[in-house]
Task: structure prediction
Amino acid sequence: MSLKRREFLGGTAALTTAALLPGAALAADTITLGSILDTSGNFDAYGKPMDQAMRLAVAEINATGGLLGREVAVKAYDTQSDMALYSQYANRLTRQDQVDVVHGGILSASREAIRQTMRRSETLYFYNVQYEGGVCDRNIFVTGVTPTQQVEVLVPYAMKKSGPKVHILAADYNYGQITARWIKKFVEDNGGEVVATDFFPLDVSDFGSTITKIQQTAPDLVVAPLVGGAHLSFFRQWAAAGMKDKIALASTTMGVGNEHKVLTAEEGNGIMVAYNYSQELDTPENKAFKAKWEEAYGDTSAIHELAVSTYQGILLWAEGVRTAGTTDRMPVIEALETGVSIVGPAGNIAIDPQTHHATLDVHIMEVQDQGMTVVETLNQVEPLDTQAVCNLQENPDDNKQYEIQI
Amino acid sequence: MDISFVILVEMLYAVASLVLISAGLAVVFGMMKVINLAHGEFMMMGGYATITAVGLGVNVFVAMLVIAPLIVGLIGLVVERLVIRHLYGRLVDTMLATWGLSLMFIGLATMIFGNTTTGISTPIAGFAVGDYQINGYNFFIIVVAILLVIALYALFRGTRAGLIARGTMQRSDMAAALGYSPDRIYMATFFCGSALSGLAGAILAPLVGLVPTSGGAYIAKAFITVIAGGPSLIAGLVSSATTFGFVSQVFTFAISPVIGEVALLIAAVILLRAMPQGITSRFFRGKL
Result:
């Protein structure tokens, strides 16, 4: 028997289609949520609770009958804190697994590594992390806080409590640089003055000379968007030098990875922060969330801001799917753009149609005995920084991360 | 007036911490010619040993000055018996082996303590000098570094054990001919080197937030200090730590901490260009 190329190709195609069919049938029955997070390696302190929160949210959706009568299945990849794995797993999620939505990414670098893959393959993407702002892409939704949402609220409060002279200490990469600029803007808007700004590479752990320098500039307030384990040393050395009761201290990052539980009460007490979430929030939603977490994982001490953002991100997506009545990408995007909102553990959170970022509650808190005591709550703070550069309603094809000029 | 005193203390502190960070490596690499890329992880383990001991209710100074060096020294002993002793004289092979060890220690620490930041607070309160506040713990570090240098000098110059160790490092065949076992002397020296690394990690632990990967932050500085120091163990250590501590602090105060770090590295490059064998190949020759 002679096999012609055309017949061979036809046969192979039929076989391939047959092989794919069970998968296709399965996909029709369940909705697949792709997750891509660092649950091991350097950033697993962030990633592990995010993964737990993601599974908790999906379990909750399934327990109440799923979405549109279909069950939600999870396809999760551990990127091992390795940026190279992000693009690899993003390709697998979009091509091989053909998921309906992807939630994940932690560092800005990881988000930028997969954002274009998601856009090209027309896979809806949620990034549920506090970050530096400015991403403008109709395919992505961001549910974490951006610098202005924190700084706009934190700086006036901290200045009112201390005084107008501010010294900024920031991590030396895009988050710290951009946040420092926003801090400067809001200090000046509130009639204050930035006396000095210092940037630190992520591995600097000796702040002795910096503390001396701060005393030379003699500010009323130190604002410290410092990031990671090495930078935690600053708060420790600041207390050890006995500065804690002399100059007020505020931070936009201390506590995101539950750092305030590593510092002793004497070292941490009185540091001012502003976040979307605190474990101490006294709302029925937060109590219910913590109870569910405890039931699933036992210990609630690992819950942090990013975990709650992930949880809320998934609930927002689910709300979008319900509103749209389908999991298809464009109808869900359009549904979310009507300003869909949910009430999560951190309060009411709504999608801002113009930027695809979130309008959310921001709580000013003070560290007290290794917890965060809520002092003041500002409802429905808008992502002003991204709004200044991004308008997806006028320009739906936009696809870049703006560096916001201040 | 106050500010010059404060800056002086900061400079001494920078020198002292470089001495501490590098002392263990000076013994292991400077004397024994083992490129120990796991040096930073030995320090990290010293930090964890201290924090664990303090958590169990041990006095913090006992934990730092006794328990941590002992534990890390013993770990070093095991490493020497299992791995390093087969690789003496094979510079490149020790590099690969100790790099593997460093990855293993990071992994073990992550499994045991988790990949989260831990720490203890400093045991000494800060105090005021005029208008300025100083971290009281800085003085402790300066004192420990001075005592350490004196003790090392006394050990190598004043005792028979020190003399035998130095002799063995220079000509192990001659030491063997005189009836000493080079194998055991190498073992003991590696133990001392590891214990010194553990001590450094322990003493710096209250100042930092410790994670299993913390060691990486120290390794480069330690190697730069030891290599720039040159052939003499103690004179090299002290002279290069003083040079680099001074340079980095001057630039830190004058410009910024980042420039301070850059200045340290540039100083190292210039120094090694001018004196490829290290400071003590030109100055303090023949000193210990």
Observations:
- The interface with chain B takes residues 40-42, 44-45, 172, 198-201, 203-213, 215-216, 229-233, 236-237, 239-243, 246, 257-259, 262-264, 266-267 of chain A (CB under 8 Å).
- Chain A has two domains: 13-145+280-360+384-397, 148-275.
- DSSP finds 13 helices and 16 strands in chain A.
- The longest strand of chain A covers residues 357-368.
